[in-house]
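tokens incoming
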């Protein structure tokens, strides 16, 4: 007679998976209707998945993971889901106003570093002094093309304005930047980094990167001597 224990855990697993799906969906800012449409089921059926009263198929889980930009494991196992960064922006308008002031402050800082007057900088960008002042104080939104004009004038990189890693938007942007850099690596390098057994080598490389140049030269000489002796 087959062991009934796996069957006994099915209702609990459905509840767990439903909870993980809901958490990932809400973190991604997606509605039940959006997710249901993407994986080809009704909104009612998708709601049942989240409630744990119905069970999604594996291919639906795969498609949903792709849509929500999370690993499949994070929709199935609680331990994996714990490692997902939780970036959920609630007060978006407030955050946008704050970012407006931060970007303005960055522009003002760049102007001050150049020792340039408000009037001179405004003229160089085709603005009035009052317009540039409003941008610097965060009182007026700046269009992307005008921002690019200011960046070109001050020789600024976009990264300086993004505040990568700071705040919910900055954290999300930093992860996207890191993922893009990882994806740009050669396939064999990506495979090595992703392999669990590679962790000690990566930690060693991180340690080496922090050593002064003199220490690295000494280490190189020591390694060369060892290989020569052999």
């Amino acid at each position: 007679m087959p062991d009934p224990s796996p069957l006994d855990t099915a209702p609990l697993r459905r509840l767990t998976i439903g909870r993980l799906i809901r958490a990932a969906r809400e973190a991604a800012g997606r509605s039940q209707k959006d997710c249901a449409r993407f994986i080809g089921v009704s909104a009612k059926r998708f709601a049942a998945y989240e409630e744990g009263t119905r069970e999604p198929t594996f291919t639906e889980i795969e498609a949903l993971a792709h849509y929500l930009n999370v690993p499949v494991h994070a929709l199935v196992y609680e331990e994996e889901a714990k490692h997902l960064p939780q970036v959920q922006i609630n007060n978006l308008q407030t955050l946008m106003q704050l970012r407006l002031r931060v970007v303005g402050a960055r522009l003002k800082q760049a102007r001050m570093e150049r020792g340039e007057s408000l009037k001179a900088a405004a003229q160089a960008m085709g603005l009035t002094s009052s317009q540039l002042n409003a941008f610097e104080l965060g009182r007026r939104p700046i269009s992307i093309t005008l921002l690019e004009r200011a960046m070109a004038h001050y020789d600024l990189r976009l990264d300086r304005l993004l505040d990568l890693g700071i705040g919910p938007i900055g954290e999300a942007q930093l992860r996207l930047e890191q993922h893009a850099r990882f994806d740009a690596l050669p396939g064999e390098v990506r495979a090595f980094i992703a392999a669990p057994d590679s962790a000690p080598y990566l930690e060693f490389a991180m340690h080496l990167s922090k050593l002064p140049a003199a220490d690295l030269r000494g280490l190189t000489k020591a390694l060369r001597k060892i290989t020569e002796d052999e």
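note: The chain has three domains: 5-82, 92-162, 185-229.
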